[in-house]
């Protein structure tokens, strides 16, 4: 038996942050070395960061990446290390993985299949490498000046054959592993930048397991971690499989800068599988594709499968758990990478703002539980007030929240005691700073001023939208003042359901630098809030829960904007339609691109409790509001991607600001019996 100790690392990188990215890489390499690792796989484009956008065009980006590679090389003595970076070849830019052997560059493999769906836009910057093509480049003197192969190559390192599938390569039908199989590859490396989405981990596990089984290899998968560039959240989750069996899994949603997942693989065991699979001899090798290097793998002891699955991963509420951890980590990284000194939330007492405030608090609890108070606070070293806290205090999370979270309830004459009490109770429950502001005099001044200008009083019968919107907009300056005073990040509180139909006031409740819940629907948010109040997050053990009982008053009320007089009994669903139905129309119409009539057909099957005429009215309303409000979605603050239904027009769902508004299609729907 030939045992090799291998590892996959997850890294929390930042685009163009050369110093911190380099430090994370080197620390991960050193940690792997201390564990006796011979072969380490690091994530895709981990030197530059994956989300550099048009900065990839800058020659300096590639030049700096090579300079970082120079710094990494001395730390790889006695190891085989894969690291990702962009590379210019013949005046074209490629997404490559560099294999380093014993401190020297052995060669570069270029990505063949570029991600171009959803948030991905790789074809804008990179060229896909053509299968079977190989070229050579001469390394700059700082990297030794040698001539190395680039492209569709594999590596024979000390008699062990190593090939690559770079992220998207493994997600396509014609994956490179199928060609590498004929060369008798022993190990497949997959350096990835695979963003989080609900349930996506299981898909990754399937292609890792199936690749290892079908090709008779050990498969090593490494991923990015955290909020790298603003919108995408990376959950980490390193994976190692052999012959169709998962032998190591790593943490997800870690608050650390890096994590290394280590195990041992048996080369002879995978070769046995290939022998039994009977690889055709006439295609057993192609020396043109091979890069050969001497290397001696040190002896190592076998390790039992290390399937690190934290208690929460087994929760029956896995979507709620993933949502809590994904958005909390994203907010934490956004805060520290933007050097903001906390968060400011206009806390209305309703579901949306309550969810945002709760997520701000959860990042404190989860961060301390994950990496400990000292490490957590060190990562927020720019917030000087935190240095004075007693880390041994049992009330430390609330003390941190007092410094990081500022909430303000802003009342007009249309606000009620119910929402005020709900906001105050939640703020106390999470330990945040809380202010109650009376903005009614501002409302009265604006209404009086405009009434005088137009020569008539503004009335609810004639000026409903105008009178609603001024209340939302006049709450913006005050909450921005708190953000300025604190040097903190103002969080917008609009959700995806409302973004779809424009049920938000521009420069009002859309004000903010980040919109953390604009990627999730209102029906799920309400369900999540009830779960967080009563069931809660699973911590170290299944019976150890983190709940927020202070959400009770929020959850006991129907969502309402409170922008009309109280005797109108305004509710969000009364203004729009039932949220679950709205979300289904959005899914059918926007994600699945169905016509109004096709949407109606789907709704009739799912919502038989409603008359067809009512379903037509709601469908008509959705399509008209969707088209009318694209301009609002264009102006939303950046949101986080959580599933395949995001409406962000800059990275996911493009739609014309001006359009025909589905007039013909809606007419066909109404004409249909």
TrEMBL record:
Binding site for L-glutamine: 194, 200
Purpose of the protein: Catalyzes the ATP-dependent amidation of deamido-NAD to form NAD. Uses L-glutamine as a nitrogen source.
EC code: 6.3.5.1
Organism encoding this protein: Microscilla marina ATCC 23134
Residues that bind deamido-NAD(+): 469, 498, 632
Metabolic or biological pathway, per its Swiss-Prot or TrEMBL entry: Cofactor biosynthesis; NAD(+) biosynthesis; NAD(+) from deamido-NAD(+) (L-Gln route): step 1/1
Catalytic activity: deamido-NAD(+) + L-glutamine + ATP + H2O = L-glutamate + AMP + diphosphate + NAD(+) + H(+)
Domain of life from the UniProt record: Bacteria
UniProt keyword annotation of Translocase present: no
UniProt xrefs under SUPFAM superfamilies: Adenine nucleotide alpha hydrolases-like, Carbon-nitrogen hydrolase
Biological process, per Gene Ontology: NAD+ biosynthetic process
The entry's keywords: ATP-binding, Ligase, NAD, Nucleotide-binding
Active site: 44 (proton acceptor), 111 (for glutaminase activity), 167 (nucleophile)
A Pfam match: CN_hydrolase
Protein name: Glutamine-dependent NAD(+) synthetase
Residues noted as binding ATP in the record, renumbered to the chain: 493
Family: Belongs to the NAD synthetase family. In the C-terminal section; belongs to the NAD synthetase family.
InterPro entries (UniProt xref): C-N_Hydrolase, C-N_Hydrolase_sf, Gln-dep_NAD_synthase, NAD/GMP_synthase, NAD_synthase, Rossmann-like_a/b/a_fold
GO molecular function: ATP binding; glutaminase activity; NAD+ synthase (glutamine-hydrolyzing) activity; NAD+ synthase activity
EC class of the enzyme, as a word: ligase
Recorded GO CC terms: cytoplasm
UniProt domain CN hydrolase: residue ranges: 4-267
């Amino acid at each position: 038996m030939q045992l090799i100790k291998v590892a996959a690392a997850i890294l929390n990188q930042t685009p163009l942050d050369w110093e911190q990215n380099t430090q994370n890489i080197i620390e991960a390499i050193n940690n792997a070395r201390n564990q006796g690792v011979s072969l380490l796989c690091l994530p895709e484009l981990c030197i530059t960061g994956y989300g550099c956008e048009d900065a990839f065009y800058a020659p300096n980006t590639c030049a700096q990446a090579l300079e970082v590679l120079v710094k990494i090389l001395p730390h790889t003595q006695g190891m085989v290390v894969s690291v990702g970076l962009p590379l210019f070849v013949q005046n074209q830019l490629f997404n490559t993985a560099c294999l380093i052997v014993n401190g020297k560059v052995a060669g570069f493999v270029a990505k063949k299949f570029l991600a171009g769906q959803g948030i991905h836009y790789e074809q804008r910057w990179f060229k896909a490498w053509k299968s079977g093509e190989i070229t050579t480049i001469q390394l700059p003197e700082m990297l030794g000046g040698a001539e190395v192969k680039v492209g569709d190559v594999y590596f024979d390192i000390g008699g062990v054959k190593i090939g690559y599938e770079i992220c998207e390569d493994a997600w396509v039908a014609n994956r490179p592993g199928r060609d590498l199989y004929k060369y008798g590859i022993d190990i497949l490396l997959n350096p990835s930048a695979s963003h989080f989405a609900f349930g996506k981990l299981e898909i990754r596990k399937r292609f890792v397991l199936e690749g290892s089984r079908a090709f008779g290899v050990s498969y090593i998968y490494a991923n990015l971690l955290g909020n790298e560039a603003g919108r995408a959240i990376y959950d980490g989750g390193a994976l190692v499989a052999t012959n169709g069996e998962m032998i190591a899994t790593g943490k997800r949603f870690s608050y650390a800068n890096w994590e290394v997942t280590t195990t041992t693989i048996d080369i002879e065991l995978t070769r046995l599988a290939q022998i039994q699979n009977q690889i055709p001899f006439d295609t057993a090798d192609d020396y043109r594709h091979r890069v050969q290097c001497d290397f001696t793998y040190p002896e190592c002891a076998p390790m039992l499968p290390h399937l690190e699955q934290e208690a929460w991963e087994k929760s029956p509420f896995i979507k709620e758990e993933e949502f809590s951890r994904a958005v909390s980590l994203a907010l934490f990284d956004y805060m520290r990478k933007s050097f903001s000194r906390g968060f400011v939330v206009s806390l209305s007492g309703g579901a949306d703002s309550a969810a945002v405030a709760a997520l701000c608090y959860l990042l404190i609890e989860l961060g301390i539980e994950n990496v400990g108070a000292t490490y957590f606070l060190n990562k927020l070293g720019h917030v000087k007030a935190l240095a004075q806290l007693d880390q041994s205090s049992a009330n430390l999370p609330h003390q941190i929240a007092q410094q990081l979270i500022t909430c303000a309830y802003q009342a007009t004459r249309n606000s009620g005691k119910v929402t005020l009490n709900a906001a105050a109770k939640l703020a106390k429950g999470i330990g945040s700073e809380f202010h109650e502001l009376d903005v009614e005099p501002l409302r009265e001044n604006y209404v009086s001023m405009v009434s005088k200008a137009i020569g008539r009083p503004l009335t609810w019968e004639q000026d409903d939208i105008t009178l609603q919107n001024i209340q939302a907009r006049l709450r913006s300056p005050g909450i921005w003042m708190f953000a300025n005073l604190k040097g903190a990040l103002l969080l917008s509180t609009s959700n995806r359901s409302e973004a779809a139909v424009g049920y938000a006031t521009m420069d009002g409740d859309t004000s903010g630098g980040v919109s953390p819940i604009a990627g999730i629907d209102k029906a799920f948010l309400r369900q999540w809030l009830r779960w967080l109040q009563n069931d809660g997050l699973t911590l170290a053990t299944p019976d150890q829960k983190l709940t927020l009982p202070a959400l009770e008053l929020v959850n006991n009320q129907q969502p309402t904007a409170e922008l009309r007089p109280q005797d109108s009994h305004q509710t969000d669903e009364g203004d729009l339609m039932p949220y679950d139905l709205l979300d289904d129309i959005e899914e059918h119409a926007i994600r699945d691109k169905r016509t109004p009539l096709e949407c109606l057909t789907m709704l009739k099957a799912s919502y038989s409790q409603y008359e067809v005429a009512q379903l037509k009215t709601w469908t008509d309303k959705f399509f008209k509001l969707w088209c009318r409000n694209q301009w609002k979605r264009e102006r939303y603050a950046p949101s986080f991607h959580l599933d395949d239904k995001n409406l962000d027009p800059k990275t996911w769902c493009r739609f014309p600001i001006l359009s025909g508004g589905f007039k013909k299609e809606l007419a066909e729907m109404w004409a249909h019996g």
